[in-house]
TrEMBL record:
Keywords: Signal. Residues 27-158 form the Peptidase S9A N-terminal domain. Residues 1-25 form the signal peptide. This is Peptidase S9A N-terminal domain-containing protein. It comes from Sinorhizobium psoraleae.
Amino acid sequence: MRGTFLNSFMMAMALATVTTMTASAQPQMTTVAEAIDSNKASKGVADPRDYLNEIDGDKAMTWVKARNLSTVDRLSKDPRYGEYQADILKILQATNRIASPGFMRGGMFDNLWQDGTHVQGLWRRTAWESYMSGNPQWRTILDIDALSKAEGKTWVFKGENACRPPTISV
């Protein structure tokens, strides 16, 4: 279900971007956002949208689903929607994309790969020479989809950090 949700969300965002880019050829109108009563924070009063901080909470997910339905409803009224949706889904699920370099260390190249099978992603590694060969041999470091399934939680890859080990003086 989360994979379908993620694909739908990514598609909606991409369609919004494409629709905005297409519409940008037309004269742009400028709107200034103004605070409205329901958005004003009052001192000593709890934030009425605090429930959104609990990203997997029932109330937050209901809010998100309502906004997604509204967005898809609006976008789907555009006559180009079906064509754009098919094109975007094809790109998102393509297995022949060029893997973009993420982190390189010691002649090894790491990459997060996402496609229709690995919606949350595969963190993987190959040697630079293998990558440059045009047919890289990847070694999986972490399968985020498998981890999420095994632990019954949704895990999200947010990048990698590496620290050089401290030097020890003797």
